[in-house]
Amino acid sequence: MDVIALFKHLILSKSPTPEDGGILDFIETYLDSFTTIRIDTHGVKNLFAYRRFGEGKHLCFAGHVDVVPSGEGWNTDPFIPVEKEGYIYGRGTQDMKSGVSAFVQALKETQAYQGTLSVLLTSDEEGPAQFGTIEVLKYLHAYDLLPDAVVVAEPTCERVFGDAIKVGRRGSINGVLTLQGKQGHAAYPEKAINPIHQIAMILPTLAGAFLDNGDAYFAPSQLVVTDIRSGIETTNVTPNTLKMMFNVRNSTQTNQKCIEEFVSNACQGVNHTLTLHQSAHPFITKGDTTIVTALTKSIEEVCAITPKHSTAGGTSDARFIAQYGIDVVEFGVINDTIHAPNERTSIAEVENLYRVFTLLIQRFG
Questions:
Q1: Is 144 among the residues known to form the active site?
Q2: What pTM was computed for the model?
Q3: Which positions ≥6 away from 62 have C-beta within 8 Å?
Q4: CATH number of 3-169+282-364
Q5: Is 66 a catalytic residue?
Q6: Annotated catalytic residue within 124, 125, 126, 327
Q7: From CA 170, how far away is CA 273, in angstroms rounded?
Q8: Is residue 216 scored above 90 in pLDDT?
């Protein structure tokens, strides 16, 4: 089986979160020279497979086999790979069965390496992500199996294959601001405390505010308002409370305490409560680390371009890996149809991704 045959096989396996469609059982068998460990829990399937060639660095490839629901608007069956004009269509082609196919094939064909090679796969990345990569990392930490470096094969390229790798990610902090007013008759505003009027004074300070100046790796952290609701949908009653929700994709220069102080200062004199929840912490793997330099050189050799080092975009399971002090980067195919109907990836991208990972293994080891 070559990388494209493997790719098509994975697309055929229906694996909406938290299902794996039998993929992990298949990969256990396919990587027959690897020692496999299953860490299935709470309905989530997890696989860690490793092969120790000798003393040296431990390089791991990580990813997920689950996909988002297919949704509507497809021109073809989303779980039957359709090849057309150099592309393969199907749910998960970009996010991220292309990446899984590329590194699994590269690992299977590796005959020599100075160290340990491994793969970490989960069926719980597109969902809550509570019992997937997190649980595997706990196991690896407990049994002294944590890798030195990890490549997560999420789709990272923007316009041309090879043009971008993720060397870090912004964090994500969700906030709920509640203003407590006093309900009353609209004809007697002096007898009420209208939280909508209060937020109108505060909102220019909060909405879209930049909380830091960013740096060489990160864009400025910005407070983005996502929802405001209040009232009982009538014109003669002023509301009792108002709830505003927001999100901050934060750099390493801004944390929960910074946001709490910023919002509290803006709300001085107003009866309010604020709750914050950090779903992801920012991290950076700097350009002089072995994994970044080796991956960059491998991309240059295959694609004849130098990728930019980016931290843009949302979150991935790399955020959990970075918390263990592991050098982690992300690299995969072009990201332009993920989660959309008629998701597709070109055959050339998948083949070149496999070549990049093959070279990376040679360079890193």
A1: no
A2: 0.89
A3: 119, 120, 121, 133, 150, 151, 152, 153, 317, 318, 321
A4: 3.40.630.10
A5: yes
A6: 125
A7: 26
A8: no
